[in-house]
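Our consortium's second objective concerns turning raw sequence data into structural hypotheses that experimental partners can test. To show how far this objective has progressed, the report includes one record in full. It was chosen at random from the queue rather than selected for favorable results. The single chain below, 150 residues long, was entered without modification.
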Amino acid sequence: MIIVSTALSLMAAYGWLAGFARQPGGDFSFQWRWNTLLWAFIGFGSNAYFWRKVWPMAGRTAATRKDIIKGSAALLLPSLWWITFPLRFLSGQHFWDVVIGLAAAATVLTFGAWMVIRLIKAFERSDLEDLKALDSADAELAGKESSSKK
């Protein structure tokens, strides 16, 4: 259900975006073109490929890091195309102002993601050390109990 609904959503979004044409007055209007259908298929296919790689069907091996990267790239590349689509209509200093703002936002978000990943890894290491300490304490306790029963 998740795979089908997200694939149909991305299919509709990409097709909808591909159907827009800029009018001479600067307005946008929707016009049916064959690239609308092409982008709808790209939206469906990239999303279906992403889910197939990230969340394998029953009976297949779990997703590896390589599979997750491939699936994410297949989903990311067309998304980046549509995120940068409005930049094509900017020119001059306004274009560079927008690019600088987007670069600053990307830098901040990347730094935030890096910090969250480091925090999660620190918690995992701490939990692993705590589990090892508990296991060794349990082993010592079990050893003392067995020697006291003799």
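The partners drew two points from this record. Helices lie at 2-18, 34-54, 65-83, 92-149. The first strand starts at residue 20 and ends at 22. Both points have been shared with the crystallography group to help prioritize constructs.
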